[in-house]
Amino acid sequence: MGKVVLVTGANSGIGLALCERLLSHDAQLQLCLGCRNMQRAEAAKHALLVSHPKAQVSIIQLDVSSVHSVLRAAQEIRHRYNRLDYLYLNAGIMPNPHVDYKAFYKGLFSGRAIHMFSTGEGLLTQKDTLTSDGLQKVFATNLFGHFLLVRELEPLLCRPGCSSQVIWTSSSNAQRSAFCLDDIQHKGGVEPYSSSKYASDLLSLALNRRYNSQGVYSSVICPGLVMTNLTYGILPSFLWTLIMPLMWLLRMFTNTFTLMPYNGAEALFWLFMQKPETLDPLAKYHSLTSGLGNNYTQPRKVSTDNYVILTLCLQHPSPFPFHFKMDIDDTISSALYEKLLALEHTVRMKLKDEDLGHTS
Ligand SMILES: NC(=O)C1=CN([C@@H]2O[C@H](COP(=O)(O)OP(=O)(O)OC[C@H]3O[C@@H](n4cnc5c(N)ncnc54)[C@H](OP(=O)(O)O)[C@@H]3O)[C@@H](O)[C@H]2O)C=CC1
Ligand SMILES: CC(C)CCC[C@@H](C)[C@H]1CC[C@H]2C3=C(CC[C@]12C)[C@@]1(C)CCC(=O)C[C@@H]1CC3
């Protein structure tokens, strides 16, 4: 039987491009598309079957921002399959983005222009909303729903003698400065996207600590800047098309302008072909495209700008030598993991109470 792969947010952009690449590589795969919108999911399945008529593609209705939907979908997946080899946690949103053009103009002449183009740091804010579960929507979609999904699919991922991979689509926009352990949902800030992506980097570390002994390996990837529905929400598509020659030119200076979903999916696809035991849990795997248009994957250390480390090390005398850095990263990721477990407990209790309310 072929390997089982579940991809969330598979009906468009990077997720759909990944599915195409996976099927081109391995026609025996059992590919499951986790999508919230069934019409768009059917269209994606149809497109995949046109290029791979013999492929085994199925759909699971999954809204990762809804606790009820995640629990129901996981139950259905456990019913359909007895294994899960790859879980791609790719669905993501950046609602109501606002570009700070003043900061962009300043950044152009700051000596950090390339960094700004590759990370979007300091340029973007978003207006978040609440889900029906009362959670911040960006947090619920980009992080918490996926966390719950991993927890629910534990029996399929952890199988004696077999290994499996959990792969997060993170972002170069993941910023330590946007994330706060006391406000993991980012209720009080205007950069929920950066916060949620930084949290996914931390969570991946925690998942490795928790699950490696059971054969589950978690990695994070960074797709670069890709033209998808997400980026068309930041600037209209005609404007992106208009500045495309400029972006090709910028590729000479930053290889993070992957631009096409196929290129953005490079690291996701590359991880599919790796032995998970050989992967570095502290690396973030970047999809990169050279000035000449060649794709490659490069691991870069995750969270090198940890301000807690800096604060501690700047104290005199420093309570920690520099080589304690990884331990402190580990402490933050453990703390996040505990907070997510506590939140999971709360939402499960709330759902139980609601169910009891309906039956009595
Ligand atoms: N484009 C870029 O430059 C970058 C993107 N990324 C990340 O890549 C990932 C894929 O985004 P991208 O392909 O660019 O954008 P798209 O908007 O094309 O894809 C996002 C996918 O996520 C799905 N999705 C959104 N919310 C939910 C939900 N609640 N439940 C289930 N599915 C959901 C969307 O479904 P629907 O069609 O129903 O909305 C869609 O299939 C995201 O995690 C994004 O943050 C990271 C760095 C850069
Ligand atoms: C000449 C143009 C390239 C000017 C575009 C300016 C900005 C709108 C963009 C520069 C860097 C971009 C970027 C993203 C969005 C658009 C920019 C801020 C992302 C934040 C999109 C989502 C991500 O996950 C990472 C991207 C990093 C770079």
Automatic annotation (TrEMBL):
Q: Which GO terms describe its cellular component?
A: endoplasmic reticulum membrane
Question: Could you say which enzyme class this protein belongs to?
Answer: oxidoreductase
Where is this protein found?
Endoplasmic reticulum membrane
Is NAD tagged as a keyword? Answer: yes
The topology of this chain with respect to the membrane is: Single-pass membrane protein
Q: Which reaction does it catalyse?
A: 4alpha-methyl-5alpha-cholest-8-en-3-one + NADPH + H(+) = 4alpha-methyl-5alpha-cholest-8-en-3beta-ol + NADP(+); 3-dehydro-4alpha-methylzymosterol + NADPH + H(+) = 4alpha-methylzymosterol + NADP(+); 5alpha-cholest-8-en-3-one + NADPH + H(+) = 5alpha-cholest-8-en-3beta-ol + NADP(+); 17beta-estradiol + NADP(+) = estrone + NADPH + H(+)
Q: Say which family it is in.
A: Belongs to the short-chain dehydrogenases/reductases (SDR) family. ERG27 subfamily.
Give the organism the record lists: Electrophorus electricus (Electric eel)
The name of this protein is 3-keto-steroid reductase/17-beta-hydroxysteroid dehydrogenase 7
Transmembrane annotation, as ranges? 230-250
Predominantly, its location class is endoplasmic reticulum
Pathway participation: Steroid biosynthesis; estrogen biosynthesis; Steroid biosynthesis; zymosterol biosynthesis; zymosterol from lanosterol: step 5/6
Keyword Ribosomal protein annotated: no
